[in-house]
Each structure stands twice: as structure tokens, then as C-alpha cells.
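Sample 3 of the quickstart, ligand GMT:
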Amino acid sequence: MKIGIVCYPTFGGSGVVATELGKALADEGHQVHFITYSQPARLDFFSENLFYHEVSVRDYPLFDYAPYESALASKLVDVVRFEQLDLLHVHYAIPHASAAFMAKQILATYGINIPFVTTLHGTDITLVGKDPTYKPVVTFSINQSDGVTTVSQDLKEDTLKHFDVKREIKVIPNFIDFNRFSLQPKDHFKKAIAPNNERILIHTSNFRKVKRTSDVIKMFKKIQEVIPSKLLMVGDGPERSYNEQLCRSLDICEHVRFLGKQDAIEEILSVSDLFLMPSESESFGLAALEAMACKVPAITSNAGGLPELNIDGYCGYMSNVGDVDDMAAKAIMILKDDEVLNTFKENAFKRAQDFDLKKILPIYIDFYNQILERQ
Ligand code: GMT
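Result:
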């Protein structure tokens, strides 16, 4: 197949899933064309089946807001026509699904029928999408998609609850590539972070409010009072400087390292003992799956799709959103005993195997084939 993938090229979960899916499809011999405004963060190598088409938005003094959606639709028309794509797969509804719809209509005037699949990732439904600013366009473009997928059952239910969706929605969970995410020997790094063999806790995110990063800091304060430990805060975003202030006021700065955005996240996960994800809302929790693949159990909230990933008392624990005391108590239960910690680590790895790329990729390929057969 010749597949066009549209996504945000940043470190955000939807862009990561789109890029990893494209890379895996290319490995299977499909031709994959990424169409976005800059090189996707994880598209960092050359392959004969992978192509990147940059959407450039022309600026003009009249524009307070440059019309990215129009530029993207025009680029889609161009790439579909000249690369003779079979199918478009857009990740994150806003504005990718409506741009794909527009491109489809334009291409029809050239006698070209291009089906498009929309994958909903989370905030495109739960936060941004259901806002009246975007809702009519999101509803329309979901209904006009030739196929719709969500990354969890919970996100499917949320979509059906908040939008008047007529299309059938298929749940295809996120996945992990064990070729990249697996425990790596990084003892020198572990020694540098935790010279006295302290436990290492980790949080990775875009530091937006929805991630409740200050709960991570508050939880760590409580854990650190009982168990000698260090906290790695990976990523960057609006809450970071507030979190740094919070560490100062809680007097734990010497135990917390803010590492900023990191490419080789699997190396940092490899030295970690426990992953913290107290999110307000989380459609799937890909970052927790990446941790589990590296044998790192997870303390998460029970929001959104997290119960479809985390198994309470097996590969981690779940608490109600905001219940920092409960999260800290459960973290201490896992961390205080080597044997318990090792069991949770092994279980995390086993749980991650349920989401092995090798199991999920064929589901996407079957879905594409069904859509193409329907045309
Ligand atoms: O977590 C974010 O804010 C980024 C966001 C995205 O769309 O890039 O992530 C969402 O998609 C990920 C991949 O499917 C999911 O694993 C995340 O749970 C989801 N985030 C939220 O629902 C808040």
C-alpha cells in the first residue's frame, strides 16, 4: 500500500504513535509518506520506503493566524495525486480530519477517490474537540471519515457521549516496539543519578495541567521521607517552572532533576524503578506503556483509558485523580522491598507484551484493507 500519514511532528503521544506506525508499515514493505509541518521527532533515520513532505504555510501581513489547514489540504492534494497514494491516515482530529475531508473533495474533481482514516488520540476529543469552538467541525469530519479508530475503549465511549457520531468506531490500542523499548544496561548512568543506590522515580510528559505534574512532586516528597530516592522529571511544558518552584518550597531540589526533552527516553527508563502518571485525563497513557516495556511499574491515576493499561496490584497501582496520599502509599509499598519491586518489574514487562507492535500492526493493516475493499 501507499499510505499518507498526517500527524503533529512533536514529542506528543499522537505524533509518536503515528511515526512509529509509519516506520513499522515501511518495514513491512508499504510505502509511507509523512505529511506535516516539520520532520517528525522520531523520524530520525533513512529508509527506502519512508518519505517526508513538508507543509509550508505562506505568511502574509493580513494573516493574524496563518491558515495551516488550507496549506495542509493543498499539500495532501498534491502528494496524493503525484505519489498516487491509496489511503490517508490522519492522527488527531484537529485540524487533520477536516483537512483530509477537504483534500478528498478536491481530489474527487480530478476523478481520484482517496479514503481517509481518522485516529482519535485523546485531547482532540476530551479537551479541545468538545469545546464549541471546534465541535461542529470535529463531529462533521469524524462522520465523513472512511474509518475511525480510538486508542482505547474509554475514548470511544467519550467520543460517543460527546459527539453525534454515526460512524462505527474501532478501538485499536497503542503499541510498543520492543526493538527500541527494552531494559538496557546503563549502570554508570544509574550510579551518577543515585550514587547511594537510592530508588529512581520518573515522570515524562509535556508538563501540561492535565498531567498534574505538581502531584508528581507532592507524591515524591512523601515517598522521599520514607524511602531514599531520586526523581527524574523528563519533558518540558507550561507547568515546569511552577514545579521547580514547588521543589524549592518543599526543600527537595537536591533529589529532583529536570532533564527537559530527551530523545533516548528508553535509556532513562532503563535506570528507573517506578513511573508516576497522576493525570487528570489520559486516553491511553503511552508514556506508561513505554516505561512498562523497560520493566518499570507504574503508579497512575484511574482516569480515562488508564485502567485498560495498568493492572492494579500487578504491574502498578491506580488511585483516584488527586489522591496524592494514596499514590504515595502505594509507591512505598512497591519500593520498600526488593522482592516486591522485582515482581512488579517483571509483571510490568509481561503486561507491556500485550501491546507488542507485532500484535497491533496487523490490526491496522486489516483495517486499511477493509476500508480499501469498501471503496
Ligand atoms: O498527552 C498529551 O497531551 C499528548 C496527546 C497527543 O495527542 O499527542 O496524547 C494523547 O495521545 C496519546 C497517544 O495516543 C495517549 O497515549 C495519551 O493518553 C493522550 N493524552 C491524553 O489523553 C491527555
